[in-house]
Amino acid sequence: MSQRFDAMPLFDSYRPFYALDRGELFSEDAPAVKNFVQSMASSVPEAIIDYRHVKDFLWSKCRRSEATYNAFRSESERFLLWAWCIHCKSIAMMKKRDIEAYIDFVVNPPRSWIGTQVCRRFLVNNGLKEANKGWRPFVAKLSKAERKESLRSPSVSDIKPDTGDYALAQKSLREVFSNLSVLYNHLVEEDYAFGNVIAAVKKASPHLIIDVSNDSVKRLSALQWEYVLESTRAKADEDPTWERHLFIVASMKSLYLRVGELSCRPKWNPKMGDFYREEDDWWFIVFGKGNKKRKVSVPVDFLDYLRRYRISRGLDGLPAVGESSPLLHPIRKHNPGLRARTIAILTQEAFDLASEKMVQDGFEDDAKVLLATSTHWLRHTGASMDVESRALKDLSADLGHGKLSTTDKEYVHADDKERAASGRTRRV
């Protein structure tokens, strides 16, 4: 296995990628990519055709979502680089043993292919995009909790990730199989590959662990959520700039929102007018996964937070019909709203504030959990707390689940509760 990293990134970020015409293979402002792919043709004659088909795959399958594009781009790019630079074989010619070799590679890549921080793929020099020499297909990272702990505690502030610490999570490995399978389905449809062997490789893979010990979703406890809400509200009382933080955490928990459903996106800019009233009931229109709209019921208790946030922005009590004001006022005035990354940062600031308060009050173990949370925990927290008091079909509709069984599996856990209850009084 090569110990040098002689490869480079192949595909740009979401917006520049789709700014190109579908038939345009290489961007004029990134000649380095064209030169690299052409150089690969000396060892893999089909390299340019491989590249064309993968580019077409990304174009046709991933346009609807930037997150989807990023996931498939990373795996497709990594797969091409391995096929050309290490395996010296076209992706069209891969058989079962070749895919098995790739999975072995992903689980245990050479250190030269591993970075210790996420880097931009390209840097601009004199108007041309050049490969960032610090970029790598794999990244060894500290966990979120470790990063936060290193900032909080001087005794562990010197902890840094090392390439030898790289480990592929089981969830990430399953995503590798899933993404490759979708890619090969496309290649087969285009008559470029002979078949899709990914499922067969996955079934026999020694690297996959079947784990049924903890399938529950990540959520905050009632105590942790109380600290998040109360500490954020207290901060907003003394600092009006925190009213936005308070509205975000209350919205994501109470309306079961994903971070992308609050954010400003190319096809959707959430507005105050997305809240509307039907007789005595309030609803919120959400543009969610799969480009699907749904309406979410708004609890009466949440309206106090909506009023509070609007008043802090100089708006009247509750939204008017069709009101065009941005749902979340942007940090920069020329922006139409907040991006998902900014929302995640503001939410994490609220988590960190609550964590500090929990440490002060002696709840150190609970505080450490808050260091590892993400925005998605709020959606799960709201649904988990409401599942006992709401009809499952109503909760499922507000969550945007296509199947009732999804809601039941994620939030009910009736069998686990019964099993725990029956085993609680066992004697030693």
List keywords for this structure.
428 residues; mainly alpha; 3-stranded antiparallel β-sheet; two-stranded parallel ribbon; 7 strands; globular
Account of the 3D structure:
This protein is mainly α and 428 residues long. 49% of the residues lie in helices and 7% in strands. The chain contains 18 helices and seven strands. The chain has helices at residues 14-19, 31-40, 47-61, 66-85, 96-107, 144-152, 170-189, 198-204, 222-238, 243-254, 259-262, 300-312, 340-360, 364-371, 376-386, 392-399, 404-411, 414-423; strands spanning 114-115, 122-125, 128-131, 138-139, 275-278, 281-288, 292-298. The strands form three sheets. A three-stranded antiparallel sheet has the order 5-6-7.
Sheet/helix structural class? mainly alpha
From N to C, what is the helix and strand string?
HHHHHEEEEHHHHHHEEEHHHHHHH
| Strand line-up across the major sheet | 5-6-7
Between the first and last Cα atoms, what is the distance in angstroms?
52 Å
Total strand segments: 7
Low-confidence stretches: none
Largest sheet: 3 strands, antiparallel
* Shape descriptor: globular
Cα-based radius of gyration, to the nearest Å? 24 Å
> What proportion of the residues is helical, as a percent range?
40-55%
Average pLDDT works out at 88
